[in-house]
Amino acid sequence: IKSKILSLERKQGCENKKTIVFDLDETLIHCNENVQQEHDLKITIKFPTGELAEAGINIRPGRWSY
Fold first, then answer.
1. I need a labelling partner for 45 at 20 to 30 A (CA). Which of 21, 30, 32, 56 fits?
2. 66 versus 56: which is more confidently predicted?
3. Backbone angles phi, psi at 7, to 5 degrees
4. Residue 64 within any structural domain of the chain
């Protein structure tokens, strides 16, 4: 677990405030490589090899409630 620890810099004046981190994978957003399926928006992903892929992104209802 120690290898998964993330150290975040705190802005001045926010040293005593809490930070919440969301794991967005399959929780608040969902990526589908089949762009023919219904989606909220479409993005192009460029891989380190230079290969491009299109993906449909679905954003879960209520995601702005946090």
1. 21
2. 56
3. -100, 120
4. yes
Global confidence as pTM: 0.48
What gap in Å lies between CA 43 and CA 14, rounded to an integer? 34
Contact 52, 45 (CB under 8 A): yes
Identify whether 6 is part of a domain. Answer: no
How many domains, the chain?
1
Query: What is the reported pLDDT for 65?
Result: 65
State whether the Cα torsion 37-42-30-48 is positive or negative. Answer: positive
Q: What residues make up the domain containing 60?
A: 32-66
22 inside domain: no
Whether residue 11 has pLDDT greater than 70: yes
